[in-house]
Structures are given as structure tokens and as C-alpha cells.
Amino acid sequence: MSLGIGVIGAGIMGADHAATIARKVAGAELVAIFDPDTARAGETGRATGARRVLDSAEAVIANPQVDALIVASPDHTHLGLVLQCLSAGKPILCEKPLAPTAAECLQVVEAEIATGRRMVQVGFMRRFDPSYLAMKQAIAAPSMGQPRFFHSTHRNASAPSWFTSDMVISNSAVHDIDIARWLLECEITQAKVFAPAQGGALRDPQFLVLRGGDGVVVTVEVFINAGYGYDIRGEVACENGAVTLSPPDLVHVRHAGTEAFGFAADWRPRFAAAYHGQLQGWVNAITSRSSCGASAWDGYVATAVAEACLRSLESGAEVDIALKERPQFYDPSTAA
Ligand code: ISE
Predict the structure, then answer these.
(1) What is the bridge-based pairing of β-strands 28-34 and 3-8?
(2) Residue 307 phi/psi, 5° resolution?
């Protein structure tokens, strides 16, 4: 029997997740979709063969054929929707960020703990990307020694008109924050952000310097109007070696005196395998009553670090990060 999926939000990511569920994920069926923009919802429904296009998020959550939900609505709506799904006892894959503030993420953590089982996965899809998985495996080799630096470059071709200076951190760099914690297996304790002066315009690019508990240093360049394409790079330097992500293309073409390869226009082609792996992992975990990917706790930590970065963006100072103590519920060894 397949798992019935409801999708809330039919924007770039809601439509992409709906298409991945409909065409590529085994053991799941797209049952219902909602977006306040009815034309957009209808178009995604037709393109993916969703059984129903409903007229509210509440109707999707309450639909008896919907067993689990993908929340891909605007960032500020995640908290309320995730809490409603938890009250309905339905597992959720929530797009990042889990909620706009660390305090709000903790509300999700508490509500999830109250259900007694792991119900929330956060859409940090890079954890499922073949190149980051290979990087994590390479740095884990004992002969590499301890990681010392992680340099992450995150460039988007262009930002939508509604993108704000804060979103450069809360919506974009939050990916680099999560992947740094996951790769290096340590927490970030201090954050400092360098950015162009405020002048009414978008503060872009931004440069984050994050210090980790074991003396590791993470640098993140986020440049969301880089113009030329979507470009994600990363390098971990360890005591005895370094590991670099390879470009994601399959070929380099040498022609007419140049060597070239292409860049995608946005993140969907670059991370297609990661989005597929994330959704398949989520469906398998629900079916087997286990968990995978980034938890609500990871969502909280990423937002807490992003919040410190926002304070640094504002003040120019380095900001200390004081995390709450991780509840046993989220210990990797005890995770359901
Ligand atoms: C977008 O929301 C994403 O999640 C992309 O992965 C990221 O590269 C982009 O900067 C975000 O705005």
C-alpha cells in the first residue's frame, strides 16, 4: 500500500517535490495539493496527476487519504502548518528554514517530543547529495586527520525581487550552516558576517566566518545575484589532506581554444539527485517507522546559528552562539 502525500505550496519547491513524488518516488502517491494561487495549484495538479487540488492547507492536512505532508509554503508559514500537522498526527517534510526564529523552532521540537515519535524532517537536501556524501566519507578516513577548515561557496544566478538581506542568511546560507555541522560533526560556537554597507539595497554578497567547537573554521560566501548561474563549491582541509566537491556536470568540452562546462540556472538540476534521495528516504523512514535526514533539532540549530549571523550582520561584531541542550529524543543513537 502506498503512502498518501499532501503538498502545501505549489511554488518552485512545492511543484518540484510534487513532480518527484509523482514520477520517481516508490511507495508514495500524490493525493492532494493546495496553494493560495489557484492557477498555480491547478497547473501543478495537472502536471503531476495529483488526485485532488483542495482549497486550503487545513483541508489537505485533514484529508483522510493524506498520510504525510510536504510543507513548501513561504518560510513564515512553516511553523503554524507544521504544528497543525503534528496535532493531526501526520509526519512532515518541511522546507528549510523550519521556522523564522530559534524560539519558534523550539516550539516544533517540543510539540514533536510530545507526540512521542520522530515526525519532522527538515528539507536540508544537501545531506542526500552524492557529492557531499562522498566528501563526508573521504574526510572520515582516519589517515586524513582532523578537519581544520571548510570553505563553502554558494552562488545563485539571481534573486527574486522579494528577497531581503536577512534572507541571504536565513533562506540561503542556512544550507551551508547545516551542511557544515553535518560534515564536520561539530557545533558552531561563534559567527561573524561581512557584507556591503546597508544602503536600502540588498546586502549581497555576504561572507560568513563561523567557528566550531573543535577549533574548526567555516567560511561561507553567499552571493545570490552572481549572474552567471547556480554554482555550489566546497572544500574541507584536514590535517593531512583536502577534499573538494567536483563540478556537478558530466563532461567538460574543449573547443575553439577554451575548456567549458555548464551551470544550471537554479538549484533544482544541481540537486535533483539530492531531492529524490531526500523524498525517497523520507517515505521509507515513515513506512518503516524510523527517521532520516535533518531533524527538527537540526532545524532549530541551523536557525539559531542563522540568527547569530543576522545579529552580526546588524552589528558587525562576532556573536557567540548558546544552544539549548539537545534532548535525548534526538540523540543519533536513540533516534527512531
Ligand atoms: C533556495 O531557497 C534554496 O533552497 C537553494 O538551495 C539555495 O541555493 C537558494 O539560495 C535558496 O534561496
Answers:
(1) parallel
(2) -65, -40
